[in-house]
Amino acid sequence: MMDTILQIRQLEKSFGRRKIIDKISFDVQAGEVFGFLGPNGAGKTTTLKMVMGFLQPDGGDIVINGFDLKRHYETAMGSLGGIVENPELYQDLSGRVNLKMYARLHDGVTNDRIMEVAAMVGMQGRLDEKVKKYSLGMKQRIGLAQALLHRPKLLILDEPTNGLDPAGIRELRDILKRLAHEEHVAVVVSSHLLSEMQLMCDRVAIIHLGRLLGVRTIRELTDLSRQTTVYRILTPEAQAAAEILRPAYGEGIGELSEQGLDLEVATDRVPAVIRLLAMKGVDLYGVTRLESSLEDAFLQVTGGGLNIE
Ligand SMILES: Nc1ncnc2c1ncn2[C@@H]1O[C@H](COP(=O)(O)OP(=O)(O)OP(=O)(O)O)[C@@H](O)[C@H]1O
Ligand SMILES: [Mg+2]
């Protein structure tokens, strides 16, 4: 059973005469981590601010847990927990006191609930230290605990991994996945990194210049047979290698250099390419995947045989 927690329909926003968000529509279900992926300036923060009620849309609808934000603002907001950028915390107070003060803003948040959310974000052992002694990752986790106190059905996090180190990112990722998959919260996270989204999300919406290019499951995005990527084949015999590859992979052959040649090919063809070259006696020093940029990811989504609705 699908339980739609967030519905966005034809959302629009302009700043001055510039249209920043152009008729965006998508749904987020309970129990999924939904990624909002796009380069700097794409309109991620603007969209999420409208969902969080900080910014008024020019057109379209936002429905949270069945309640339209325009007509039932308070009820809709009651289902939402969100953090934009850094959470505001009192630096000279402990994590526990910060949570208690925040809890007063909501009805019925008990001390037990405070301990429960602290455990969810892995901070139960550190609650009595002052916030100013926390690392950035710990502050983020207290911010997350705050957002969870009133049991929101929808959690919105704008670039939550900004500034975190790899270990911090991994911990946050695990927390968010657990919240979605075990507590059935609908979690929305934005990012400009596809690689990060792949590890964290169940589905990803790609936004570019204020327009939604498409929504894909991670499985669709990572289906190797449908994606082509540029690989650099390291060999002193680039010319010979190119001739061997030409009949089957001619269209993908890119630049030849002293280091080797670049070949654009579907990832599931790479083993066959290596076998072919090795069989023909070409010396191979390595095959590296050239980092695919976000633009490549967009191209894969828009032009790689996937239909955009
Ligand atoms: N208050 C504002 N007034 C005018 N223009 C704005 C305002 N806020 C955002 N913009 C513009 O809207 C566009 C989208 O900005 P937004 O912050 O939503 O992008 P983003 O996807 O969150 O980018 P980033 O990855 O850098 O956070 C940008 O071109 C930005 O300059
Ligand atoms: Mg932003």
What does this molecule look like?
This protein is α/β, with parallel strands linked by helices and 309 residues long. The two termini are 23 Å apart. It is elongated, with a radius of gyration of 23 Å. Helix 3 packs parallel to helix 5 and helix 4 (111-120) packs across helix 5. The protein has 2 domains: 4-221, P-loop containing nucleotide triphosphate hydrolases (Rossmann fold), CATH 3.40.50.300; 224-303, YebC, transcriptional regulation domain (Alpha-Beta Plaits), CATH 3.30.70. The protein has helices at residues 44-51, 73-78, 95-103, 111-120, 136-148, 166-181, 194-200, 218-221, 238-249, 270-279, 294-303, and strands at 4-15, 18-29, 33-37, 59-64, 67-68, 80-84, 154-158, 186-191, 203-208, 211-217, 228-234, 253-256, 260-266, 286-289. 34% of the residues lie in helices and 28% in strands. It binds adenosine-5'-triphosphate and magnesium ion. Adenosine-5'-triphosphate binds at residues 15, 20, 38, 40-46, 192.
List keywords for this structure.
single chain; 309 residues; alpha/beta; Rossmann fold; Alpha-Beta Plaits; 6-stranded mixed beta sheet; 4-stranded antiparallel beta sheet; 11 helices; elongated; disordered C terminus; binds adenosine-5'-triphosphate; binds magnesium ion
CATH topology category name of the largest domain: Rossmann fold
> What compounds are bound to the protein?
adenosine-5'-triphosphate, magnesium ion
CATH class of the largest domain: Alpha Beta
Number of domains: 2
Instruction: Report the order of strands and helices.
Output: EEEHEEHEHHHEHEHEEHEHEEHEH
**Poorly predicted runs of 5 or more residues:** 302-309
CATH architecture of the largest domain: 3-Layer(aba) Sandwich
Strand content: 25-35%
The side-by-side strand order for the widest beta sheet comes to 6-7-8-3-9-10
Our Rg estimate from Cα atoms comes to 23 Å
CA distance, first residue to last residue: 23 Å
Mean pLDDT metric: 88
At the fourth level of CATH, the homologous superfamily of the largest domain is P-loop containing nucleotide triphosphate hydrolases
Total DSSP helices: 11
* Overall form: elongated
- Secondary structural class: alpha/beta
Please bin the fraction of helical residues.
25-40%
In total, the number of strands is 14
Largest sheet: 6 strands, mixed
